[in-house]
Write a structure and sequence with these properties.
six-stranded mixed β-sheet, 4 domains, Molybdenum Cofactor Biosythetic Enzyme, Chain A, homodimer, alpha+beta, Molybdopterin biosynthesis moea protein, domain 2, Molybdopterin biosynthesis moeA protein, domain 3, elongated
């Protein structure tokens, strides 16, 4: 049986990023850049004032005091028309270009302008070359590579691309993920379950997990434990980039999912991983053809916490890989146990946990948990903690966590 | 001048959560619950098998071995029709109800079923009362309060609400946030800046920040430094819950924003905060009337990093408060400096920084940064680190960070 790391490596090796395509800058949040971006101009594009005040020659203000003749006002968006000579200054706004001759700005709070004489009195503690200015090209030089392919686009990357005039850019696609819950025991959320039945909570949860991962969710409802019906829904799901099935992958006589997937041309990459919860997890793909891209298929165990954990560990890795991220695996952080815990089992356990990072260390407290059907435990958690098999942890023992929020 | 904490307290005190309204479960991701949710049934609703296998009387399998008569098959979604007597078993699927008489499940891998005789041979290491079962009501009891008002809805909360049959729920609204960049120096991202001009990168960045905060962004383009034009755009923005202006709040002659806001009936709560970058930040509101709710207005400084930092610190606190979160302030984590740093200034600095949490501690490395116009520095950062005034930090010194991603 594969270990979690082996299963993750198989996923990364099997899944190929979606094709790159042009995207409007305003639609790009959370996508991954598919090109290297080169600056088309210097940033800032000219020597610039960082303050509202007066542009001066710093040599005119050797001891912080001077009275200077004001020759013009330069607004942001305006252009200086005069060179500042000895004894002169220009009134200047934040973001406006520094006029020739001047090399520093004295902020307005340290000046007194006399309307009648057109002169400004200066009293400042500091006026050296470059004071309150920023020189052209300090942040970025024209021709420099500013962002590289594989970069996830956050507000600061988008702002930087806007500075560079990139109203469109090349990004990897946003994956479409179909969600299909299987099992005759399921009823829609709005209905009252009969004897032996439960509500289809996995669809709701997986749809939210997929959206949180930055992908588009395509919910397909409930598939009954009946071959023809299941086959039809699977075909629908195979039109997406990923198909997540929940339930139907353990060893019961009605677990039709693996055989129906095979019939639909989906080949198995792995079935079962040495992990708790989630051991029966199934992964495979329908290969790409010249007509259509590949579809990656996960059979997630039906118990809600198994489904959630396998969704975060395995399906999310496939989604990250599809979006073009170079490091697709779960983002593991190191914490330390806040209390003792013994895992007597022979499988690694991903246990609902609450992390506290307010003290300089990441303290990890396990949430009370009744096992794979106890979704409520995850509500009190913000992470899953990895408890190694046959391990005895004490307060302060190192423990790896993957955050859920 | 207010400290950052005083300014945040003013925002929390001034801003009221949006009204609660009914929301479809599928549209609720990221919203905040506005009701206490009580379980309408036990979870699980019946004693349930956690495995595919055979339901048995544990007393029949005292030393892990037995041969039992199989009286029926219980599928998930099905209902047992027989009571298990001594010497009997029922084949059972994961999620199916435990039949009367039985008290444990032996998993299928530890059994051998003989089709011809209808008998199952069992060889297991453990078969005690409750083995591989979960008892009705273990996770939740009917009538119990499962989620309380003020809870942010993540995939696990939504899954739990689905289990409870809540196809709709009461949640606080999603804020609408208008974004208006001001200044004659700005040109749209798709245009080439002329002399003295720069591209309107703040709109792109603030729109993405607002979306990342879970709110709806309403970009209003560029307002020129001209009263009538600015007034019209401000009126448009006041139709939203929040109006973010960037630029126009420092001390220059063309900084028309504060006076135009006043003319539009927006009253100042504070102007200027003891912080770097972002000192000129402005906050106020147009009070609610019987006809319309209040609008909260931020004047953010125009330099991109000032705008971003004030957006994350102040505007995001207002957004969190509007969404109904009980703790609306920035989520501060404690880390430690990875290198020495001296802040000689008299203001606290929020410095772009990179955190590393892979080692059990949060190590903080400051990004190289040329000041408030240097947006590119933030691209290499995932957090802002708070450097106190006149402080001398060494490697290992504690330092607070607010994450950006």
């Amino acid at each position: 049986m594969l270990s979690v790391d082996e299963a993750l490596a198989k996923i990364v090796e099997t899944v190929a990023p979606l094709s790159a395509r042009p995207v409007a800058l305003d639609d790009a949040l959370g996508l991954v850049l598919a090109e290297d971006v080169v600056a088309d101009l210097d940033s800032p594009p000219f020597d610039k004032s960082l303050m509202d005040g007066f542009a001066v020659r710093s040599a005119d203000v050797p001891d912080g005091r001077a009275t200077l003749e004001v020759v013009e006002t330069i607004t942001a968006g305006g252009v200086p028309t005069k060179t500042i000579a000895g004894g002169q200054a220009a009134r200047i706004m934040t973001g406006a270009p520094i006029p020739d001759g001047a090399d520093a700005v004295v902020k307005i709070e340290e000046t007194r302008f006399d309307e009648a004489t057109g002169r400004v009195e200066i009293e400042t503690s500091r006026c050296e070359p470059r004071t309150n200015t920023i020189v052209r090209g300090t942040n970025t030089r024209s021709g420099e590579t500013v962002l590289r392919t594989g970069r996830r686009l956050r507000p600061q990357e988008l702002g930087t691309l806007a500075e560079l005039g990139r109203a469109t850019l090349s990004a990897f696609g946003r994956p479409r993920v179909a969600i299909l819950a299987t099992g005759d025991e399921l009823v829609p959320v709005g209905e009252t379950p009969g004897a032996g039945q439960i509500r289809n909570s996995n669809e709701t949860m997986l749809v939210a997990q997929v959206r949180r991962a930055g992908a588009e969710a395509v919910p397909l409802g409930i598939a009954r434990d009946e071959r023809a019906h299941l086959r039809e829904r699977i075909e629908q799901g195979l039109a997406c980039d990923v198909l997540l099935l929940s339930g139907g992958v353990s060893m019961g006589t009605l677990d039709l999912v693996p055989s129906e997937l095979q019939a639909a041309g989906v080949r198995e990459v792995f079935h079962k991983v040495h992990v708790k919860p989630g051991k029966p997890v199934w992964f495979g793909l329908r290969d790409a053809t010249p007509e259509r891209p590949a579809t990656y298929v996960f059979g997630l165990p039906g118990n809600p916490v198994s489904s959630m954990v396998c969704g975060e560990l395995f399906a999310r890795t496939a989604i990250r890989r599809l979006t073009g991220l170079p490091h697709a695996g779960p983002r593991v952080e190191r914490g330390q146990m806040n209390h003792p815990y013994v895992n007597r089992g022979d499988r690694p356990v991903y246990h609902p946990a609450l992390t506290d990072t307010t003290s300089g260390q990441t303290w990890v407290t396990l949430a009370p948990w009744h096992g794979s059907s106890d979704l409520r435990a995850t509500v009190e958690a913000n992470a899953m903690a990895l408890l190694l098999p046959e391990s005895e942890l004490t307060r302060g023992s190192p423990v790896d966590v993957v955050r859920w929020d």
